[in-house]
């Protein structure tokens, strides 16, 4: 019997990516909260869980918001232990680059000294 933990869910979300950047939403700091509770109404014999995720976006954009929420929902519902998943999109507190992990900063080239005080992020395909 496996007990689903916040760390399990956070690790699973590392395959979900910002629609515009090649960095997962965990390392970007877009995941604000993960709640995992037993779902006593779930059918079956395995332990089943309800998961509630609070996420944000780097900037408002309805199309990207819908893409990201669907991506997170699909990933969570693909987990055997999850019976119910809800995703809450919030804008408070606003996202800032300070929330990014060191891995995200390296991936985007933000760990190198900026030339002439400017930071350039290169998007794939552009």
By DSSP, the count of extended strands is 3
- Total individual domains: 1
Judging from the principal axes of the Cα atoms, what is the shape?
elongated
Strand and helix order: HHEEHEH
CATH superfamily: Fe-S cluster assembly (FSCA)
Using the coordinates shown, work out and report the CATH topology. Answer: GMP Synthetase, Chain A, domain 3
Ends apart, CA distance between termini: 47 Å
Stretches with pLDDT under 50, minimum 5 residues: none
CATH class: Alpha Beta
Q: Give the helix proportion (percent range).
A: 25-40%
Give a short account of the largest sheet: 3 strands, mixed
Structure, explained:
The chain has 126 residues and is of the alpha+beta class. It has one domain: Fe-S cluster assembly (FSCA) (GMP Synthetase, Chain A, domain 3). It is built from four helices and three strands. Strands 1-2-3 form a three-stranded mixed sheet. Strand 2 (49-55), helix 3 (62-77) and strand 3 (82-89) form a beta-alpha-beta unit. The longest helix is centred in the middle third of the chain and has 16 residues, at 62-77. The radius of gyration is 17 Å and the shape is elongated.
Tell me the layout of helices and strands.
Blueprint lengths: L5 H7 L12 H4 L2 E8 L10 E7 L6 H16 L4 E8 L12 H6 L19
């Amino acid at each position: 019997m496996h007990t689903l933990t916040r760390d399990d869910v956070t690790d699973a979300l590392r395959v979900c990516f910002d629609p515009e950047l090649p960095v997962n939403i965990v390392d970007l700091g877009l995941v604000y909260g993960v709640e995992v509770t037993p779902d006593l109404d779930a059918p079956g014999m395995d332990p089943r869980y309800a998961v509630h995720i609070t996420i944000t976006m780097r900037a408002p954009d309805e199309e990207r918001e819908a893409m990201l929420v669907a991506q997170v929902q699909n990933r969570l519902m693909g987990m055997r232990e999850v019976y119910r998943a809800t995703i809450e999109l919030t804008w408070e507190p606003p996202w800032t680059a300070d929330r990014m992990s060191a891995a995200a900063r390296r991936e985007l080239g933000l760990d190198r000294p900026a030339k002439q005080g400017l930071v350039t992020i290169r998007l794939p395909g552009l």
